Amino acid sequence: MTSRTTLPAEWAPQSAVILTWPHPGTDWAGILDDVEPVFEAIAKAVLRFEHLIISCEFVARLQQLGQQLNVHAEAQGLPGRVLTVPAPANDTWTRDHGPITVCKGDGFSLLDFRFNAWGGKFPYEKDNALSRHLANAGVFGSHPMQAVDLVLEGGSIESDGAGTLLTTSECLLTPSRNPALDRTAIERQLSDLLGAERILWLNHGYLAGDDTDSHIDTLARFCAKDHICYVACPDVADEHYSALAAMEEELQEFRQADGSPYKLTPLPWPDAIHNQDGERLPATYANFLIINDAVLLPVYDVPQDSLAISVFGKLFPEREIIPINCRPLIHQHGSLHCVTMQVPAGVVTP
């Protein structure tokens, strides 16, 4: 008999969060002074509750970061410590190029899926090799890393920790990722690799400025096994209205494993934010990160931020809600959850 495989829910106890730090060789080069403070805010918030793994291509900057953040953690009496790994990177979207950790019986296995920059949209060779660099550096101890010949990004799947996955057909079935695999074959892979017993497919959902082909972590998220929060657009004149209304109807039709409907909470809709070229940017409160005893919530310096903080306080009453201004991140079409990847408790022990 083989041990059952499960993909932990994000609210399960964690040992660490992984960050791939921005550097002048990435698309952040022109706004490093704006974006590095966002990463620093995320790093310091994580260290209040758990450890942090940082990789960076620029070794001198990496060493400086490790020293500064560890001094900060020690001075503040924080439980987290920083592990640093020099590694080349094309970009900083750790959610998608980082490892996905599954439970197998009493142990863990880190899955190194192929990463092709959301269907070959950007250079990705360095990012595709980054998980192996982390494993070779020993940050995951003796826990094995398995190379998987399947293109899959962490932002494209949501797990309730009990065998149900939430995802979008727009992303997982796009031909630029796994052209030889149809929906049935994808479901078989998700079952074999992640222990998925049920897969809830959203066929609608859209966010302007999103490069990922509708990643689920920008649209709808599990906040408990029986509860999904989701992006909702109340403005009938907004380009998002029809697609998000159709997504809401799909969520209302979804059922839990016992046949009961999910609790559903719509999230506030932030005012439209555009870049200097007039392109609308993908601001979404759905791109939050759950960590031990806290939720890191992306905010965007818009009037709806205060309402979002209040909504999340009700969604996660036993966790501290820590807002982090992620307006600089959306200029490269992602947000807080996109730049992070959590690692379950028991895997990382500095």
TrEMBL record:
Family annotation (InterPro entries): Peptidyl-Arg-deiminase_porph
One MF annotation (Gene Ontology) recorded for this entry: protein-arginine deiminase activity
Keywords: Hydrolase
Top-level taxon: Bacteria
Keyword Acyltransferase attributed: no
GO terms, biological process: putrescine biosynthetic process
PANTHER family: AGMATINE DEIMINASE-RELATED
Stated name of the protein: Agmatine deiminase
Species in which this protein is naturally found: Marinobacter fuscus
